[in-house]
Description:
Number of helices: 1
Strand order of the largest sheet: 1-3-2
Distance between the termini: 30 Å
Helix content: 10-25%
Amino acid sequence: xxxxxxxxxQPGLVCITIEGVxxxxxxxxxxxxxxxxxITGPSAPQPVPGGPGVHVRQYMYARLLPDx
Length: 68
């Protein structure tokens, strides 16, 4: 088991990673999420470690639904 990243220690905070072949594609997908949800804007595109393409990250608070 690994330690949880410091930025994810708050309850309900989630990190969403979008990977794709080109920066334009991942940024377009990220902006679609931003338009529809209460989520941060995307990070700058970064190379995918050990693989092709790029990724961006976004953060949001998940709304936890009560048990049914």
